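User: I'm writing a tutorial on reading structure tokens. Could you give me a worked example: one chain, its sequence, then its tokens, then a sentence or two explaining what the tokens reveal?
Assistant: Sure. Here is the example chain.
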Amino acid sequence: MDATAKIFGYKRYPLHKRIKKSFIPKEEKTDIQTKFKPLSSGVIFHGKVRFHNLKKVEIGALLSALTFHGHDGYRHNLGMAKLLGYGKINIEIKLKNLNYKKEEYLKAYEEEMRIFQDDWVESSQLKELFAMANDTIVTDKGLEYQKLENPTTRDREKNDFIRAKKNRGYLQRYSKIGNVTISSLNSFVDKEEVELERKVREEELKRLELLEKEQKAKELLIEQEKAKKRAEEKKWQDKWEAVQRVDKKYKKKALEDYLRNYSNSPKADDAKKELENMGGSTVKSVPKGLDFSNADDSKSIERAMKPVQNPTDDDKDKLEEVIKRVYLSLNAKKKKQFGKSKLMVRWLGEDRLSKLL
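And here are its predicted structure tokens:
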């Protein structure tokens, strides 16, 4: 066998038109032979299939397996000597103590299968299964049992198995051999219903994909916010460490600059204390930092901006973030006020502000 070979399908014996005699060489030892006594043709067995707590679709699956999805003319194979044509049986089912007809159960099962494969009834797997179970057999061509010593072949190699291997023989699809008449299978689901269900599934998949994209976008935004926060923390930490290294005669100005730019940082109180110890009144001259905690429209944002005379890049970034947060929650009239704000234009410039609105 080739290293890249793949299993072609499932093992199944096709039905035979006639019963064949077993070919046993005369020299075959009797102690390795298997003997059986077949039942006569037409023997009828009666039985019951009991089940509990099955869903409608599960009962449909059971019926579909036993009745070849409600199609007549197809047979199961049971017992020994199937390769000689024995074991061909027909199953007839009578439903008792159930709420629906057989067709309703089969329809429920087919609808479920079509979720996974739209063309389930027309699939190649079912086509091959039904071909091998079809009782309208035209010929038994190609169903002869291979022999270790075939006296009828004209080939130098008499062993059928070895000859097939040398010729790289393989089992073709049974529907292509021509032993049976292939007919299309009936569906219990209306084509219009199937098409409608397909469209509904497609719309649902699109909706789920959109939700997934929105969720990923939210997660990305959260991650970006965290990254920005980490960057800001590093920024004030690095600046504070730099302030601590400044020479004494420049320390006062360095602390004032720190408070002007990082008034909301955890080290702001430490900076104020150091300034108080250095001069007392210096703290009062330090401008108050930006506070947008109460901002809910353009006017409240401007009120928070006014105390800051010389906005830093950090101040401008904070303004941009609060505009993004507030703008979407406002009505059309209040949104227009942002474009009229001269103070916001002075801080961000017309281009940067217009991109936010």
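What the tokens reveal: The chain is about 50% helix and 0% strand. Strands lie at 76-77, 88-89.
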